[in-house]
Design goal:
The chain is of the alpha/beta class. It has helices spanning 25-36, 48-61, 75-89, 112-134, 158-178, 206-214, 224-234; strands at 16-20, 40-44, 94-97, 140-145, 182-189, 245-248. Helix content is 41%, strand content 12%. Helix 1 (25-36) crosses helix 7 and helix 3 runs parallel beside helix 4. Bound molecules: NADP nicotinamide-adenine-dinucleotide phosphate.
Length: 257
């Protein structure tokens, strides 16, 4: 007879999570998904009304939560977030970094301010938050929302592509630093219909037509299609996965046409 078989289930039940950029789009879907799966969750961003709205949704699901704003460009606000989360949960198991901005100018038109803001929000913000939360995470999972754009040429997106390439590098290096207690992984979504895309992915737009033609799955994703990967990376089922970037793009990146 062989050894008795066991495996760790994919669940975040009983865990505590903080989702930065958790008030909209992908981050909000992950926050609500975690809560639905039994986690306690704080979802935060800069805008108090958005924070209050998602906190009410989390309460409705039954999660222990707290309403607190945070700006990844402001380390003091992240320290306050960490303090509130620790008071609320006792300790934090999962940190999701999903804050995002995107400048849309060609390189010759791009202002230094816009360049600096995108790099600061997309990359340095992840460093700030991870550093603060990792200090007292005992057995944690940090999940960075990267993008397939980290590895692609996209016109009028130099800070975005640079920032996301940085996120992938940060993810691998931080995973080496924080092992074995804390795992650090990234999810690289493809095209997901959220407010950041400003309607560009709506059916009937020129961009959407091109996406539909080029993608093996001729559509864009909904935010909830990113949630399962986040639950997996947050759960103990991914206990040997760290420093990894998982692309969730409907096959767009590897497509040969
Ligand atoms: N949608 C896509 O197609 C796609 C594809 C690949 C990757 N991504 C990435 O996924 C992440 C989430 O984007 P999304 O599509 O879900 O966009 P979204 O709906 O616009 O959400 C962005 C979130 O980031 C927050 N945020 C912005 N600046 C912040 C700051 N300085 N500090 C804290 N929070 C901040 C926003 O809230 P406040 O304005 O209230 O701060 C909001 O909650 C981003 O990193 C984005 O680059 C998106």
């Amino acid at each position: 007879m062989g050894e008795q078989y066991t495996h760790t289930p994919v669940t975040v039940d009983g865990k505590s999570a903080v989702v930065i950029g958790g008030t909209s789009g992908i981050g909000r879907a992950i926050a609500l998904g975690f809560a639905t799966e039994g986690a306690d969750v704080i979802a935060t961003s800069r805008d108090k009304s958005k924070v209050d709205a998602v906190t009410a949704e989390l309460e409705e699901i039954g999660a222990t939560t707290a309403a607190v704003t945070a700006d990844v460009q402001d380390a003091e606000s992240l320290r306050n977030l960490h303090e509130v989360a620790t008071e609320t949960f006792g300790h934090v198991d999962i940190l999701v970094n999903s804050a995002g901005t995107v400048a849309r100018d060609a390189l010759t038109e791009l202002s230094e301010d816009d360049w600096a803001r995108d790099i600061d929000v997309l990359l340095t913000g992840i460093y700030r938050a991870s550093k603060i939360f990792a200090r007292d995470m005992e057995s944690g999972s940090i999940i960075n929302i990267s993008s397939m754009s980290a590895d692609q040429a996209r016109a009028k997106r130099t800070p975005y592509c640079s920032g996301k390439a940085g996120v992938n590098g940060f993810t691998r290096a931080a995973a080496a630093d924080l092992a074995p207690e804390i795992r650090v992984n990234a999810i690289a979504p493809g095209f997901v219909k959220t407010p950041i895309t400003q309607g560009a992915y709506d059916e009937g737009t020129e961009k959407r037509e091109i996406i539909n033609q080029r993608s093996p799955m001729p559509r864009v994703a909904t935010p909830d299609e990113i949630v399962g990967t986040a639950v997996y990376l947050a759960s103990d089922a991914s206990s040997f996965t760290t420093g990894e970037v998982i692309t969730v793009d409907g096959g767009y990146s590897p497509a040969s046409i």
